[in-house]
Design a protein that fits this description.
The complex is a heterodimer of chains A (184) and B (420). By secondary structure, chain A is mainly alpha-helical. Chain A has a domain at 47-164: Cytochrome c-like domain (Cytochrome Bc1 Complex, Chain D, domain 2). Chain A has helices at residues 2-17, 39-45, 63-73, 75-78, 114-123, 134-147, and strands at 35-36, 60-62, 156-158, 173-175. In chain A, helix 3 (63-73) packs across helix 6 and helix 5 (114-123) crosses helix 6 (134-147). Chain B is α+β, with helices and mostly antiparallel strands and 420 residues long. Chain B has three domains: 10-63, no CATH class; 81-289, Oxidoreductase, molybdopterin-binding domain (Sulfite Oxidase, Chain A, domain 2); 298-418, Immunoglobulin-like, CATH 2.60.40.650. Chain B has helices spanning 5-8, 17-35, 47-54, 136-141, 169-173, 186-193, 218-224, 386-393; strands at residues 81-82, 86-88, 106-107, 121-126, 132-135, 145-152, 176-185, 201-206, 213-217, 226-231, 234-235, 245-247, 260-266, 281-282, 288-290, 298-303, 313-322, 328-334, 342-343, 345-346, 356-364, 369-377, 406-409, 415-418. In chain B, the strands form six sheets. In chain B, strands 5-4-13-8-9 form a five-stranded mixed β-sheet. In chain B, strands 6, 7, 10, 11 and 12 form a five-stranded antiparallel β-sheet that branches. Chain B has a five-stranded antiparallel β-sheet with strand order 19-18-22-23-24, with no helix packed on it. The radius of gyration of chain B is 23 Å and the shape is globular. Classes of the chains: A mainly alpha (184), B alpha+beta (420). Strand 4 (173-175) of chain A pairs parallel with strand 15 (288-290) of chain B, so a sheet runs across the interface.
Amino acid sequence: MCRSSRATSIILVLGLLMVSPSISVAEESRYGLGLLVGEAAIKAWDIDVNPTGIGLPPGRGTVQQGAIIYENKCAACHGPTGIEGPKDRLVGGQGSLTTAQPIKTIGSYWPYATTLYDYIFRAMPFTAPQSLTSDEVYALVAWLLHQNGIIPKDAVMDARTLPAVTMPNRGGFVSDPRPDVPIH
Amino acid sequence: MNPFDGEMRTSSEEGTEQEARIDRRTWLTEVVSLVGVTAAGLITPALLPAEEGASPAPTHVPGRGPSPYGLRAEGETVQRLTTATHSLTPHQSLHGIITPSALHFERHHNGVPSINPDRHRLMMHGLVDRPLTFAMNDLVRFPSVTRTLFIECSGNSGHEWKGPTGKTVQETHGLMSTSEWTGVPLATVLAESGVKPDASWVLAEGSDAAAMTRSLPLTEVLKDALLCYAQNGEALRPEQGYPLRLVIPGWEGNTCIKWIRRIKLGTAPFMTREETSRYTDLMPDGKSRQFTFVMEAKSVITSPSGGQRIEPGFVEIRGLAWSGLGSVRAVDVSADGGRTWHPTQLQAPVLPRCHTRFRFGWHWNGDETIIQSRCTDETGYVQPTRTALVASRGTHSFYHYNAIHSWKIDRQGNVTNVSV
């Protein structure tokens, strides 16, 4: 209650000061709300990895290491070789996108290898997201890329090698051309 | 014709409560014959007289007292249709444009998180002058904005790409809903952190088990994106992002990140799984369209619709129309499979990027026919036929299906999903 009445009076005062609240960032319109946040706190939440590799943590993993982790933590949902499911198919499908039965997988569809690190760390395994170490994620990424025929058996994935991997469908995306359907 | 007329009469007016009760019963019976065996068939004609007979007339016993949080009337059991990953709004049973919060569709990628609002923080960092965190108290103190807006999952009607699939409008069009949303413009909160001049993309991230993440172009979200804490006047429902969600008017639902906890500014899209592997539209040439944010104009007849049954005579065709590009300018209805079209009545207010209710008084002569609706928005965009849409995009894009929807009525009055 106290919280909302305080908020109401502040809103009233602000309402008088600024008749139309600006939504332009160019304008200097600050309300003095929020707390400055330090580097450590930012780091704890800053988990995204972009295509240039920014965000990739230290660590490394091999295809062989990945095979073991995959079998233990992933195969139950994605199948022993990444093809069988029952959940999303992760392997194969290259060359299928223009056919009557397109199969979208890491190998056939994903444009960036870095996305694999980002997604596996943030969301997998489904029942325990954000539980894998960076070494484990690098190893899983290595195994999945190898299964898809993208990197050799002896490849090592780390913050330097992963962004350098070129995905087969890297050129497969275009920007939004809509409206695209002719008016009848 | 207003089904609630009877109920809204006060006792000082000529109608008595007894009449009101009868009106209501008539209305329910009408609905039953209209609804037939849909999910709303929870009200069965046989049940009604028995139930009324069993309890004493409401005019003869005191009613129950006020309650701190209201519940819907006993016997009103319209509900969402749930699967493991989503639930669908029962548009065949709803009126007007607001979706009751409890019936707003859900789509989440690893469940609905349980979040303590006192501990929830929104962090703003990356290419900003001042990285900041905001508590819910802070966000509520900013100048606020309220807008009534639809949210439509880009996968709404997605199975229809392959041909008529859903039986009811809940199945074909249930991944969309409209609420009145209240929050603070994202631009206001961004200004508090100060945006660096080289920033051009925004990463928005949720605090659910999917840590749902999308990249959004900065200039676009500065226009009208809202960080919302309220839906239909009260705090957001947990499944709608409690305590805080992004709402981007007219854009695919997935961009409206729920349970949002982090906003990062950068110079390029972050290329998350949800904007590469998913939420991209595969075309027949094997290329995929990326960052297809806008939900183009669309409409659907919600009554009569799949699974319902109608009687010959007067039928009010009712439906919803909407456009992610602005307001609905017109909705036309065809009752002969698309040969002739008739303008419909749009119920005010007609709001931009919001559901608009349309109505058309029709006389069904009992012949087999197909009914359709077609939306035109303020940009002049006309909702395409299925043939035109499929000719342009093939049938594998899954997202953004917005073709004219066809319901067939057979001689018995049964309504089914067909394509023409």
